[in-house]
Amino acid sequence: MTLGTWLALFVALVVAAELVRALRHRGLRQERWRRFFRHRTASWGLGILAFLVIIALAAPLIAPFDPNKQLDIIHLKNHPPSWTFLLGTDVLSRDVWSRVVFGARVSLGIGALGALVAVSLGTLVGAVAGYYQRWIDAVLMRGVDVGLALPRIFILLMAVALWDGLPFAALVIAIGLTSWFGTSRLVRAEVLSLRQRDFVVAARALGADTARVIFRHVLPNAAAPIIVSAALGVGNVLLLEAALSFLGIGIKPPDASWGNMIADGAPSIYTAPWSTLFPGLAISLVVMSLNAVADGVRDALDPREEPA
Amino acid sequence: MTSTSSLPPVLLRVRDLKTYFVTEHGKGTARAVDDVSFDLYPGETLGIVGESGCGKTVTSLSILRLVPEPPGHVLPGSLIEFEGRNLLALSAPELRAVRGNQIAMIFQEPMTSLNPVFTVGDQIAEAAIIHQHVSRSAARARAIEMLRLVGIPDPDERVDHYPHQLSGGMRQRVMIAMALVCHPKVLIADEPTTALDVTIQAQILELLDRLQHELGMAVLLITHDLGVVAGHADRVVVMYAGRVVEMAETDALFERPTHPYTEGLLAAVPRIDAPRAPRARLHAIPGQVPAATAWPPGCRFHPRCPYAWEKCAAQEPPLLETGVGTGHTARCWLVTEPERKVPKQ
């Protein structure tokens, strides 16, 4: 590691901490943000996520080596962590730190985009089913039952088998299309109870049309569970991508994702644990941070909680 | 006494309104509103009174077609005519153009009738944005103006408040502001003060009276509180078991209640000025409103009526006029056989 990369890393840390501090400071004036930051773990989670996102965005500045370059297959294979190779090298003599940094782009990208696709679709289907009820609800929910019953890893395997060399976008869409079932059930349940509420009838009495009622009066009141399910969804998608890559059908080598790094390092896990440990830690860190943030968001958005 | 013929043209005409609910598990059909007819004239306040479960709220929801379908449905043959147009025959967009614009409604529960996630300003502005396509800033100005009109102090500040920051009375004022943004011709007020304490009730009713005069709208005041009706309604419709049982001008109804049910309701109001034996019990109408799936045959009130005789159980009376040209009608055989008015033992 050179001085420049240390400096970049330090700057990333400071920026992340500063960002959280600024949000917190500004948030103290707003009830919702205040409720969020009352959670110490949520603040930490937000900070860690901000740090990882900054690292992913600034990957070329922070990674000391080309992540895909085999530095010296003879002498630097499975090199243990040192000052030069902060997290060691893997079986092909690639720098693990650089790969973790570049892998963050892929993994976080898939996680965020996949969850976005899944939550949007799930929200839409759930809202339509819950609002219209009757046969529309029956048809959509039986579809969801089928979707939940099929193991999605097999659906994805099928997609991969049909489409050789799955591009990144297709992988995101495939993951999104197989991950929305749970969200749609959640949203449907919320909508079912919200649509009976007095303020929804009041909105209809004012002349609001169905789209307005759903998007303005029903869904905003279901925002808390939707956002929480999105946050947890990112974690799930991340784990799914790791599982797919581990099976060799996710991100194509030599590009790094945290999942395929674990897969690559698995055979030498006893001799060179660092090549699997650190991407694994990164995944755990993101999932735990997201859980903490989701907790905070849920509390911040809970309309039942009166201001302190 | 004003005769019906000298009144201005009818604004809202309800004829033979039947709203039934299909109950689950095949228990049958609940005839919540069964053949209700009344007229609402411009600028007047028409009170609809009755016990819980007699069809008041369903009647009001039927007018704006807000009855949840299924299980509810308004039967063909019903007529709800607003300015000559049958609301039951309107398409969905035509109906939306009437809702909140020409006919507005305020609800019983101010605590739950406001959307908790939007500011009151946003909610008041909504009807103006929907119906008049005004800009956001113009809508906000309208919201502030409406808040001032309904007597909320510091409207410039309150406009940005969320419902949970307001008291019950304030929220009901906000509801009224929401309903009146587009200056509707008819305001349906479904038990607007039931959830409020007594002093706030009086304020809200006074506010409604004032706004009615300022804006010249007709009010359909639905309540179970005869005191409210006495003070604020021009005419009264008494409902029982999904039917109109008596209809009269307010003074006439209170002076000469004709239907035994109306009599019972009036007797059930506690009076501080009436001489009473110490420890005397309040009068109550015996029994309860029967289930809407099984109204009794004949007059629907006869099982609870102190005067009922065989004819009442056999044949349901029509709405009978109690005096020529008074517009006072009652659904009771006593109108034709007043000598029968002897309480049973």
Give the structural class of chain B. Answer: alpha/beta
Rg of chain B (CA only) = 21 Å
Q: What is the terminal separation of chain A in angstroms?
A: 49 Å
Give the percentage of residues in beta strands of chain B. Answer: 15-25%
Largest inter-chain contact set:
A-B, 22 and 30 residues
| Helix and strand element order of chain A | HHHHHHHHHHHHHH
Chain oligomer state: heterodimer
Q: What is the H/E order of chain B?
A: EEEHEEEHEHHHHEHEHEEHHHEE
- The average pLDDT score of chain B comes to 83
Q: Classify the beta-strand content of chain A into a percent band.
A: under 5%
- Rg of chain A computed from alpha carbons, rounded to a whole number of angstroms: 22 Å
Order of adjacent strands in the largest pleated sheet of chain B: 7-8-9-3-10-11-13-12
Number of strand elements of chain A: 0
Mean pLDDT of chain A: 82
Describe this protein with a few key phrases.
heterodimer; A: 308 residues; mainly alpha; 71% helix; flat; B: 345 residues; alpha/beta; eight-stranded mixed beta sheet; five-stranded antiparallel beta sheet; 13 strands; 30% helix; globular
Describe the structure.
The complex is a heterodimer of chains A (308) and B (345). Chain A contains 14 helices and no strands. The model of chain A has no long low-confidence stretch (mean pLDDT 82). Chain A is 71% helix and 0% strand. Chain A is flat. In chain A, helix 5 packs antiparallel against helix 6, helix 5 packs across helix 12 and helix 6 runs antiparallel to helix 9 (181-194). By secondary structure, chain A is mostly helical. With 345 residues, chain B is α/β, with parallel strands linked by helices. Chain B has helices at residues 56-63, 92-98, 120-132, 136-149, 155-158, 168-180, 198-215, 226-232, 250-255, 260-267, 310-314; strands at 12-22, 29-40, 45-49, 72-74, 79-82, 85-86, 103-106, 186-190, 218-223, 235-240, 243-249, 320-321, 329-330. The longest helix of chain B is centred in the middle third of the chain and has 18 residues, at 198-215. The model of chain B has no long low-confidence stretch (mean pLDDT 83). At the A-B interface, helix 10 and helix 11 of A face helix 2, helix 3 and helix 6 of B.
